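In the laboratory, one determines a bound structure by crystallizing the protein with its ligand and collecting diffraction data. In a computational setting the workflow is compressed into a single prediction: the sequence and the ligand go in, and a structural description comes out. We illustrate the idea with dinuclear copper ion.
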Amino acid sequence: MIEMFHFLPASASGAAARFDLLMLALMLLTGAVALAVTLLIVWFSFHYRKGSGADRSDAPAGNRIIEVAWIVTPLLLFMGMYVWAAYDYAQLYRGPANAMPVFVVAKQWMWKLEHANGHREIDELHVPLGQPMRLVMTSQDVIHSFYVPAFRIKQDVVPGRYTTLWFTPTRTGEFHLFCAEYCGTEHSVMGGRIVVMPPADFTRWLQQGTSQPGIAAHGFELFRRHGCSGCHSAGSSVHAPDLNGLLGRTVHLQDGRTLVADENYIRDSMLLPKKDVVAGFEPIMPSFAGQLSEEEIMAIIEYLRQTGAEHASASK
Ligand code: CUA
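The predicted complex, in structure-token form:
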């Protein structure tokens, strides 16, 4: 009904439906409060206007029950709204495990996107209907922001680290992609489209024109070419941490900290190896800053993720 009046852009993702409902509830609740207050003001102004015959004798000094009611009722209603909104917001950052990854590198002034099988796109993202998608994003220069109004999602894309975003498209069609962070002269034209296709069409589309290897295979090639495998392999004479199944594993660091290895941790380990030294190892790894492009760093991380999956299935 909301869309009928074009108050909002099309609602094309799971999050869009949830946030529209939340927005509607918030409008109705605040609207009801505003209406009640306004009606009371008008009624009292009229009823007790100067010269009216209203009974002013024996005016009550207070009413505990009414006061408690008007404090507690709105408190519960609005705290309920807060819990509802906070839950939806938290959902935005906890994607399902089966989400399909897409790697996004922003630059002045374009979006470069790559699917796990190596299929690349520029300023366009094709996705299958109903499939949760997970975007892993970084920028090669300044801060950009990935914004799809029809999906009600927006996330800053920041140089030097990864941010993630996930969504489930619920409607086929084409939807606008914007950059929502001022990033220079051509910021306003930095955009594109998201194309949501039926799953079978998407599978066909994904297979088209991919002569290059998948991202993980490319990562493996880089892993050898840059000499990572020389130290990080079982038979190596250099004492370096084993990287099998690293993503998601808990890592104990030399300075006593503990963290769960994610994409940002692996990225920092390549570019700033002295930052998080693993307990029991010497900080001898050289930095690869400046030697790897953003796409190459993502490829190596994908290779490590794949070895993790193989490792997990082998040890079952
Ligand atoms: Cu990129 Cu604005």
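The longest helix spans residues 14-47. Keep in mind that any predicted model is a hypothesis to be tested, not a measurement.
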